[in-house]
Amino acid sequence: MTYCVAIKLNAGLVFLSDSRTNAGLDHISTFRKMMVYEKRGERFMVLLSAGNLSISQSVREILQTQQLEDENGGPPITIWNAKSMFDATRVLGAAVRHIQERDGKALERAGVDFNCSLVFGGQIAGESPRLFQVYSAGNFIEATAETPYFQIGESKYGKPVLDRVLTPKTPLNEAAKCALVSMDSTLKSNLSVGLPLDLVVYETDQLACDNIACIDEFNQYFRMVRNTWGDKLRQAFDSIDDPHWDSGDMAASIQPDNSAIRPVKKITNSNVML
Predict the structure, then answer these.
(1) Taking the model in full, what pTM does it have?
(2) How many other CB atoms are there within 10 angstroms of residue 85's CB atom?
(3) What DSSP element (H or E) covers 16?
(4) Domains in the chain and their CATH numbers?
(5) Phi, psi of 73 (to 5 degrees)
(6) d(CA 198, CA 153)
(7) CB count, 10 Å around CB of 92?
(8) CA distance 117 to 152
């Protein structure tokens, strides 16, 4: 299993991925799920992958050479000459379909689903940063101001903090902190997601990025985030009153007298018709 999250903001893009692909009592595998593509001053792109490892590795390998026919009769489109992130994502979708056409039937005969989820984002000179989620069929959707992030893999544990914190105006480093808290929540609740982590924080219009980090269990900042988040959650929990079962304190009463909905009816022997 895995967990990857990518965030699109006015200020730029944040990408974070774990590196665990299999977990068991005696078998834990580590493979990186992030690839960075850069042509300084012209384009910067990041690919995150989840799902079947053999499929995602094949897609990542072929993506660097995959070509898409130009509808206007120009030279074939690749991720290195695409004029927009939309066209670059079309190339990625074509790479996914190529692998499906090549290996899909063999995988089906072996009882293996064609399972591949990808997030692809970045910036190409001449347009703003963009972020896409690509599905197993090669089709994709784009992040919007209303939905400024994508998750793939084991997403449910880390989603609440993203929903509560992120807006398009969120500063980059604050969004990076939010992504790390989201990842920590997932690590805490699911053993199939594990360290080390890969983090990229890209600033709009830089068309290059040196803010790339690998985070392991010894990383002091991440350890501080984990400890502080856990402590603050406990403090917030302790600050909330326990529910009261009488109506003396209306603010804390769990069953106020003025409720329009009545509690569930108890079944007792007297209710049973013989």
Answers:
(1) 0.93
(2) 23
(3) strand 12-17
(4) 3-233 (3.60.20.10)
(5) 85, 10
(6) 15
(7) 25
(8) 7
Region 206-212: what's the mean pLDDT?
Answer: 98
Write the pLDDT tens digit of every residue in 136-169: 999 999 999 999 999 999 999 999 999 999 999 9
Complete DSSP assignment for 65-134: T--B--TTS-SPB-TTT-SSHHHHHHHHHHHHHHHHHHHHHHHHHTT----EEEEEEEEETTS--EEEEE
Work out the burial of residue 37: count CB atoms within 10 Å of its CB; fewer than 13 is exposed, 13-18 middle, 19 or more buried.
Answer: middle
CA atoms within 13 A on the CB side of 224: 4
126 in the Ramachandran plot: left (φ > 0), alpha (ψ -120 to 50) or beta?
A: left
Cα–Cα distance for residue pair 201/33, rounded to 1 Å: 16
90, 84 contact by CB (below 8 A)? no
Q: Half-sphere exposure of residue 19, counting CA atoms within 13 Å on the CB side?
A: 14
